[in-house]
Amino acid sequence: MKNPKELKALYPYQFAGPQISMSFSRGWFSLFAQLCADIDQELGDDKRGFHWRQVKEKFGQARVCYQLAEGAVDRDPDVAEKIMSMRVQDEVASSKVCALCGRPGMIDLKPGWMLALCEEHRAQADAGTLPSIWFEGDEL
Ligand SMILES: [Zn+2]
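^ thats the input. predicted complex w/ zinc ion below
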């Protein structure tokens, strides 16, 4: 899986429904793709009612929001709790992964530029030459 377009093709139901905004970081993409796979497995045969509302960056790490409809009454209540926990793990993990390249990184608390980056890309950010961390165009 190399980009959001392929991910959407694999789990179309996760990307159907009302969304606020969807921004996919290159460095965090494999974490997010794994999260989508884990959620797909957790939902089992009943995929009703789950979709992503927002994927973005906040406070230097990934922030992902979803909607899980209450409607599926026959669903194991543990499922909602497990998905919530997987989501939190994804966000925490992203704080230690470079948002551009996916190598180990950390959040620099310097004012004005709070983003998880590896050393190389931190230096680029400091120099003002960091390329966009986001997937764009026909990769989406
Ligand atoms: Zn990097």
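Residues 77-94 form the longest helix (18 residues).
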